Amino acid sequence: MGVMSGEYVQVSGRIIYHLLHPRPAVLVISMGSDCRPGGMVAAWTVSLSHSPPLVGVAIAPQRNTYRLVKESGQFTLNIFGMDFLDKIHALGSISGRERDKFAEVGLELEPSRTLRVPRARDALGVLECELEKIVDVGGDHDLFVGRVVDAYAKKEFFKDVYDPARAKIILHLGKRIYTTLAEVMIVKEHDAR
Q: For the chain, how far is it from start to end, CA to CA, in angstroms?
């Protein structure tokens, strides 16, 4: 390891990922063969391809959601604003393996437009995904690659991009710390020569 100068602090272990945050706290919903919905909150989501539209979410094998997505082959990604912070944090903190955590925190589910698995009623944006593959990345999480078969957002919050002043997307900084966008800048177009 190199010598650290006085202007840097060493980051290691389980907080290394905090250097890549904030990231949206996304509610992943699926259901197993028993048709009982479950899910988890994930900040480790990523766009992977425009054509076909592919997204990824990292899920640890010991999570109940891992089994649900693997069994159903489908999942929804649900994006929320700060009005739902307490519910989203609670959903990310408790297991739904033995109980209905959606009912417990008061979050309503409803049928998706295309898939069998549900979506969250009050989500600002929803991506409905069919599982393409599970990639073993060699760590403690696997990457679930989903093909987006339907995507939609509440029109008062989204017009090509989210309106950050209105949507106030929940962004996870790390641990129990969340934020939202504070400032938006639009840069001028650069010549791509």
A: 40
Query: Phi first, then psi: what are they for 45, rounded to 5°?
Result: -120, 155
Q: What is the pLDDT of residue 2?
A: 47
**Both tokens assigned to 96:** 């739904």
Say which amino acid occupies 77. L
Distance CA 80, CA 171 (A): 9
Domains along the sequence of the chain with CATH = 13-179 (2.30.110.10)
> SS in 3 state form for the chain?
CCCCCCCCCCCCHHHHHHHHCCEECEEEEEECCCCCEEEEEECCEEEEECCCCEEEEEECCCCHHHHHHHHHCEEEEEECEHHHHHHHHHHHHCCCCCCCHHHHHCCCEEECCCCCCEEECCCCEEEEEEEEEEEECCCCCEEEEEEEEEEEECCCCEECEECHHHHCECEEEECCEEECCCCCCCCCCCCCC
Residues 63-91, mean pLDDT to the nearest whole number: 97
**CA–CA distance, 77 with 102 (Å, rounded to integer):** 15
What is the predicted pLDDT for the residue at 94?
85
For the segment 30-52, what is each residue's pLDDT rounded down to a tens digit? 999 899 999 999 999 999 999 99
